[in-house]
Design brief:
Layout: H1 4-13, H2 20-23, H3 28-49, H4 58-63, H5 65-76, H6 87-91, H7 101-106
Helix pairs in contact: 1-3
Length: 118
């Protein structure tokens, strides 16, 4: 989970391959509506389907990476591995085909990118 403003601005600034969902991100207003609807339906699914859920805030991950990742590993039933700390460095040797590839390669950061005037 991340501040919706950060998510929306990040998505708005990216060049995604267009599909019906990504088309909505061409406008901040439509993107905000899509984000809100996706978050609303995910809450409904969690409640009605009884899905196992482990919320993780991006800001908490930045503050305490190891603690938060150990909790995630425990939730998933996988062992913590020290190499998880170096995900950005390790990912540079791989091809990443996700919209967040630039952020993955950069690693976690507290810094917000300045918004250029329109």
């Amino acid at each position: 989970m991340r501040d919706p403003r950060d998510v929306l601005l990040s998505c708005f600034r990216r060049s995604f391959s267009l599909n019906s969902s990504m088309f909505e991100l061409l406008s901040l207003e439509r993107g905000a509506r899509l984000y809100s609807e996706v978050m609303d339906i995910s809450a409904v699914y969690r409640r009605t389907l009884g899905l196992a859920w482990h919320p993780l805030r991006y800001e908490s991950l930045v503050e305490d990476f190891e603690g938060e990742m150990r909790a995630v590993c425990g939730f998933l039933g996988v062992a913590w591995d020290e190499q998880m700390r170096n995900f950005a460095e390790l990912s540079r040797a791989r091809t990443i085909k996700t919209p967040s590839s630039v952020q993955v390669l950069r690693g976690l950061t507290r810094r917000r990118r300045p918004v250029a005037p329109v």
